[in-house]
Amino acid sequence: MQYSSAVVTPRIMKETKLLLEKTPPGVRVTVSEENPRHFLFDIQGPPGSFYEAGIFKVEIFLPSDYPMSPPKALFRTKVFHPNIDKVGRICLDILKQDKWTPALLIEKVVLSIQWLLGAPNLDDPLDTSVADVFKASPEHAEKTAREWVQLYAK
Amino acid sequence: MERENSYVSPNVDLEDGWGDEGSYEQSMERQASVQSAGIGGAGVEKEEVDKNGFIVQKLENIEKTQWRIVRETNETLGLTDDQSIILLRAFKWNTEKFQDKWLSTDNHSKLLIEQGLEFDQKIAKSFPYVNATLKSANQGYCQICYSQFNSTNAKADSLKCGHEFCSGDWTDYLSARVNQGFQFCISTTCPQHQCNMAVPHSMFVKYLTGADLKTYQKWFCKSYTDDNKKVRWCPFAGCDYCVIYKDGGIMEVNCKCGNSFCFKCGQESHKPSDCDNTKQWNLKNSAESENITWIMANTKDCPKCNKPIEKNQGCNHMTCRLCRHEFCWLCTGDWKEHGSATGGYYQCNKYDAAKKSGDQTILSKEKKIDDAKNELKKYMFYFERFNNHHKAEKHAKELLPVIQNKILMLHDVKNYPVGELNFLEEAINQVVRCRQVLKYTYVHGYYIKNEMELNLFQSMQEMLEKFCEHLHELIEKPLDPYLDPNIIERTPFYRYRDEQFARGR
Ligand SMILES: [Zn+2]
Ligand SMILES: [Zn+2]
Ligand SMILES: [Zn+2]
Ligand SMILES: [Zn+2]
Ligand SMILES: [Zn+2]
Ligand SMILES: [Zn+2]
């Protein structure tokens, strides 16, 4: 089966329905009116993390061969995090082609992104300058991260 | 025998796909006939082991060998195709190592779980959602396309783990993996996240058709050749031969495409230089070739009239077109001084010796080298000689069809028996071979640190240079005078031949 990008498959319909009806805690979802493959999420920073007070906007787009290819995800809120870069790209294993499987769901992606906020991975940094701050001085990293939350994620 | 049918999918497209290459269905039949004829029986292809212990074969023959190994393993250990393929791959197709491991352990299930042939219950416990795709746990919906399983168009299928997806999704999934490339294809697991089950050969064959199935077959074969220390692809462009290493100590392969390469490292033949030095040298060359080194190595001024001359022949004996001055290409010294009267054709191969011995005649000849104190000069010295042999080798290869044509003419016009003419072709092959070796003597020499060793090496190099240079000059002599139908006298030709024999033996 080949899906064109305009077509909404039964799977996407079902996923959208589930997301709207049983939205996971700490998450708000909006489906784009022009494109049903385009989602906007408000993700709450995990409690106890540097980001707990913030609400982060994350855009998710389903490519034409979804679910054979992973969804594309992008932070729309600036965040000081070693696995998220300046333009909002995210380094997360299940978003990569070799770790993604078609049995995963958008919901799982969103929850993994939320989890990533609370568990920065310094072994696989996307922004090395941020990772260096996290390694050299966790206090300084926490301070900057919390400042950015106040500045951008409110 | 039941296995035989189980992996031939009813989906296999007979018109498209393997059919046009005449291989897939046929290879299935061949495999069946191998099976029925018994291993080592009439169904097995002949293997020609060359004098170096290599078997040079086309891709489809490699696949046959691959299947034979799978079948042998099946019979010895009572495994299925799918199990043998994945397990052998895990053991880099080292049958003995795998069989030893299998026969020496009672805990087969550990090995099978590790290789994704049995479901790992531990994963199911630590990742509860791994069970979510089981039909019972999923309210009858396919987790990939969200069709209901009991509807007619969604036939569910799963690996041993029980994670069910409909057949259309399996096709889409496996097609995507195959087209993402070799690494993706061979590491394909059950679509369920975190499930450890590997997708075996039979699933690919069952769900893929046409071009996808063809691509899969390519990866399937590559998994054998890449993993296998005893198999290598010929590195020369456009050649689709594979080489199997049988036995013997020589690591040099003469491929049926006419080129030869090193089995150990996959680079062009590089005797007497070793694999590491050769790799280092080639890296260096690709980094330096852009600059002036290249120009310097390809044109030179005539030492007498100073007009630039481009080298377009194989041998180093140059005659300037303008002033007819004869000189040596390498050291630009007078050719007369290179004769046997001066104790050897070549003094121009000695780089360090010239500097250290303070020999004035050599020093004056090696003007450019004389003041060479730095690394770049040394490198250029060696590169120039390396490149010189490289080009001479090419020239000699280009001469082969010309000579073959001349042989036919000498036979037709002058009635020389073919047996008396073969020496011409042999001489060219000798020269090509010498040039290949000489080329890499300069790589070897470049990396020699010990002065004694270098001196000894250079004197041997000199001998070979002398022999090769003379033979190359002889084969480049025009044969046309011997083709004049009005001259019946054959003595000059036989004299020419004897001279080559004297040099060639
Ligand atoms: Zn399905
Ligand atoms: Zn599974
Ligand atoms: Zn070849
Ligand atoms: Zn080698
Ligand atoms: Zn001249
Ligand atoms: Zn010379």
Automatic annotation (TrEMBL), chain A:
PROSITE patterns, alphabetized: UBC_1, UBC_2
Q: For the UBC core domain, which residue ranges apply?
A: 7-154
Q: Which UniProt keywords apply?
A: ATP-binding, Nucleotide-binding, Transferase, Ubl conjugation pathway
Q: Name one GO molecular function term.
A: ATP binding
Listed Pfam families? UQ_con
Family the entry assigns: Belongs to the ubiquitin-conjugating enzyme family.
Q: What is this protein called?
A: UBC core domain-containing protein
Native species: Halteria grandinella
UniProtKB/TrEMBL annotation, chain B:
| PROSITE patterns on file | TRIAD, ZF_CCHC
Record keywords, A-Z? Metal-binding, Repeat, Transferase, Ubl conjugation pathway, Zinc, Zinc-finger
The species is Halteria grandinella
SUPFAM superfamilies linked: RING/U-box
UniProt lists compositionally biased (Polar residues) regions at 24-36
Instruction: Give the protein's recorded name.
Output: RBR-type E3 ubiquitin transferase
Origin, by domain of life? Eukaryota
EC number(s) given by UniProt? 2.3.2.31
Residue ranges of every copy of the CCHC-type domain listed in the record:
262-275
Gene Ontology biological-process annotations: protein ubiquitination
Return the annotated region ranges for Disordered. 1-39
- Return the Acidic residues bias intervals: 13-23
**What sort of enzyme, by top EC class, is this?**
transferase
So what does this thing catalyse? [E2 ubiquitin-conjugating enzyme]-S-ubiquitinyl-L-cysteine + [acceptor protein]-L-lysine = [E2 ubiquitin-conjugating enzyme]-L-cysteine + [acceptor protein]-N(6)-ubiquitinyl-L-lysine
Ranges for domain RING-type:
138-352
Q: Which GO terms describe its molecular function?
A: nucleic acid binding; ubiquitin protein ligase activity; zinc ion binding
**Coiled-coil annotated residue ranges, if any:** none
